Amino acid sequence: MTTSAPTTTTNIVRFDHDRPLWRRTLMTRESAIIGLLAVVLIVASVTVNGFAQPLTYNYLLLDVAPILFIALPMTLVMTTGEIDLSVGSMAGLASVTTGALVQGGMPFEAAAFIALVVGVIGGAFNGFLVTTVGLPSLAVTIGSLALFRGIAVGMLGTTAVTEFPEYWTALAKAKLAGTQIPWVVIPFLVLLVIFVVLFHFTPFGRGIFAVGQSKDAAHFSGVNVNRTKFIVFVLAGAVAALAGVYYTLRYGSARGDNATGLELQVIAAVVLGGVSVFGGRGRIHGVIAAVLLIGALSSALRLSGVTSDIINIITGGLLIVSVVGASLFAWVKSKRSTISPARVAASPAS
């Protein structure tokens, strides 16, 4: 008497490598976002008075720089199936920390370094509660959002620190010599290379995808699930603090309400850029294109006289359409994959 081992199936996302390379490259959500970004830039440059001027593009990159920074680690966090809603408050706390220390007589460089350490500690705090205590990341980061913002407001109250070294404030808004590209693009490109390599070309990055697809399967495959999640939360806190320091220099002011609402813009861009809200799927180039798309669209509409409320409605509509469209596409694809084997089984053997 023989028995067969029971078989189990798991819903793991796999890329369709049976399709031609051009289809896997061009027929993707990320490519659609890049194409839409190109259309928005072209149309805006033709129809919006002044939008095509290089100076405006310079300001566009300066404005979206904090979102670009934080979107990098947020991509990793959400690919694991978690979320971090505290990044905007952490940026504000880092801004206030920098301002308070500079106001107390500390050199700016040392103050900025301590602000980055505060970001690492805040990210580790979130990661500890999620991985060791076992609390859901949504509840944890909603709590830390209020905690970090409360500390930031409590440190300075309603006052603002505006005395920063002129060298650093000028550098935050400076352009590369002979170009219209802001200097802040350089540190962003350095971080971009680091995160692309880490996310797409290392075992740690493959572990992030595995955790997002199935925590149990990832664990049995040898991935340290808790350590992976802890590291991505620490990265989110550190980069959010870096964005907060830049935010301070960009506007020359450290206030308790700096970067308020920034986390919503980051999450909207990450989801619009193709990262699944359920984890297990994401590409950094799609996220970067989505950040630039939202920034370009907002700038074009603002220059056309559209109010901020309408801009928020349009941005929210894009986000909803992207989430619903992705879910609908996945549902249709799953239906097709279940119908095809049935047709093969029903066909007569040759």
Q: What's the arrangement of secondary structure elements?
A:
Elements: H1 21-26, H2 29-47, H3 54-79, H4 87-103, H5 108-131, H6 137-156, H7 166-173, H8 185-200, H9 203-213, H10 215-220, H11 225-251, H12 262-272, H13 284-303, H14 308-346
In short:
The chain is mainly alpha-helical. The protein is built from 14 helices and no strands.
Report on this model:
With 350 residues, the protein is mostly helical. The protein has one domain. The chain is 71% helix and 0% strand. The chain contains 14 helices and no strands. Helix 4 packs across helix 11, helix 5 runs antiparallel to helix 6 and helix 8 packs across helix 9. The radius of gyration is 22 Å and the shape is globular.
Give the SSE order as H and E letters.
HHHHHHHHHHHHHH
Overall geometry comes to globular
Task: Tell me the Rg in angstroms.
Answer: 22 Å
Q: What fraction of residues sit in β-strands?
A: under 5%
Number of strands: 0
Count of runs of 4 or more consecutive helical residues: 14
Low-confidence residue ranges: 1-15, 49-55
Percent helix, as a range, is over 70%
What's the number of structural domains?
1
Distance between the termini: 32 Å
Largest sheet: none
On the 0 to 100 scale, the average pLDDT is 83
Structural class label: mainly alpha
